[in-house]
């Protein structure tokens, strides 16, 4: 039978009555949550505890990565997080969350297999960046570095794909002073292959005009119709674009500002613009708010250099790009944008750094990632809208 709620007056009276009885009896009231058990002072987080925080974080993200590896569903046995108990462990709620996440990733692995993509092995390492303790709560910042090795399904895939992601883990101490992992928050854009959270999206930018071109959406059906790229017609160095992106996917070029973590949108378009510039795109100087201008260096950048939608408007208005009908038509140096919530405002920009038998592989910032297939992007965000640009 469901418990009944007392009225405010009756509840207050009951509390006062209980307090009076306790005072008469000479008994100090204890908080209800600690009844029947000893309560320790606010626990200290020493080096050993921090190391256990790091090991549990490593176990969480390793479990997620392993869920994507071909053949590991039956072989991996219990999740690594099951090995934690006592002083530091998952809370029951977070344990259910991780179970649901692993199930979601198992389904993603199946979708990838249908698209002809498998991973033969994976590795994840987590470093602890900072720990902030206030009473019985600890906020732990970590960096996850993950690599997935492509299983040779097509034969000439890139060797591997990988990413660096940043997370904030919340640990809460129980009444015995034991720490439980109660929450995980992705602190960059959440675009890693082993993440299931919906990416944050940029607000609609209200700087369009009646003459602003609207890019058509691209189909995601595989395989795409033939549309071979002419690598000499534009006089650009597409290999240089790919080389730049591969060089700076995780080690940012200090010649440009870093917008990662600077609100929705992050550094993704800034990074792609740098790669295009390395391959021969020339500056069009002018007013920074004018989407028909495009320029960027350490000191100043046009909005079209760093903004997702503004880049799209410049790319089309300047005729530096043409739209592709299908994402699988993209080749080295081409650009893919995604509108995750399909509200008409694009949210993320990536550049193609290789292609294997009809499948483009993308590199991008804001969850720094290299050589991730367009199939993996689609499998992770099947309801998004996609825009493919030939450069």
Give a description of the structure.
Helices cover 28% and strands 23% of the residues. With 391 residues, it is an alpha+beta fold. Strands 1, 2, 3, 4, 5, 6, 7, 8, 9, 10 and 11 form an 11-stranded mixed β-sheet that branches. Helix 5 packs across helix 6. The longest helix is centred in the N-terminal third of the chain and has 23 residues, at 92-114. Mean pLDDT is 86; it is low at 1-37 and 203-211.
What is this structure, in a nutshell?
The protein is built from nine helices and eleven strands. The chain is of the alpha+beta class and 391 residues long.
SSE blueprint:
Blueprint: H1 8-25, H2 47-66, H3 72-75, E1 88-90, H4 92-114, E2 119-134, E3 137-150, E4 160-173, E5 179-186, H5 238-248, H6 268-278, H7 303-306, H8 308-317, E6 322-324, E7 335-339, E8 348-356, E9 359-364, E10 368-373, H9 374-380, E11 385-390
